[in-house]
Structures are given as C-alpha cells and as structure tokens.
Amino acid sequence: MDELDPVIHASARLRITAVLAALTAGDRMSFPRLQELLGMTAGNLSTHLRKLEDAGYVEVDKTFQGRSPATYLSLSAAGRRAFEDYTAQLRSLLGGEP
User: Fold this and answer.
1) Cα 96 vs. chain centroid, distance in angstroms?
2) CB neighbours (10 Å) of residue 14?
3) Left, alpha or beta for 76 (phi > 0: left; psi -120 to 50: alpha)?
4) How far apart are CA 54 and CA 36, in angstroms?
5) 97 Cβ partners below 8 Å, 6+ apart?
6) Are 74 and 61 in contact (CB under 8 A)?
7) Helix ranges restricted to H, 1-98
8) How does pLDDT run across 38-71, given as a tens digit for each residue?
9) Which domains does the chain have, with CATH numbers?
10) H or E stretch covering 29
11) Mean pLDDT of the 2-14 span
C-alpha cells in the first residue's frame, strides 16, 4: 500500500481539504468563512494553505471588493483527486472497500 499523502495527512490540512472538497467543483469559499468554520487563527490557516497551494491542491484567488482585499479558496482538480485517493487509502487501511 502506498503511504498516505503527507501534505493532506496533517490534521489542519486534512480539515481544510475536507471542507473545500465538500464544495461543488468550481465553487469557492472566502478565507474568513473557512477560518470561521475551522476555528483557526489567520496565521495558522495561511501557513497550511500555503503548503496545500505549493502542492497544487488549493487555488487561491486574491481580489478586491471595492477597496477591500478578498481572498477566495477552492480545491484544484489535483487537490480533489488527492483527497479522493487519501480517503480511499484510509478506507482500505480500516478494512473497508477502496
């Protein structure tokens, strides 16, 4: 069996990926909403998002709403695939169907 994806396996990154995977492909979530859902500090969330972004799993869209900056996040196709592979590996480890 392949090892679990270490990028996703960290608890905080797994939670981030799971929330973003629950969105319909093509949908996105604002940084403050994700922060609120996960109960994470902005700095901690940013650090984990950077790791996911560097791996190509998360897409970050920084825009402006009027004069205020806004950051939106979504799971990339590669991120969605990685999360699906990760959950299949977990099921297999737990004795379920892959």
Assistant:
1) 24
2) 19
3) beta
4) 23
5) 91
6) yes
7) 6-9, 11-21, 31-38, 42-54, 77-93
8) 999 999 999 999 999 999 999 999 999 899 999 9
9) 6-91 (1.10.10.10)
10) strand 29-30
11) 92
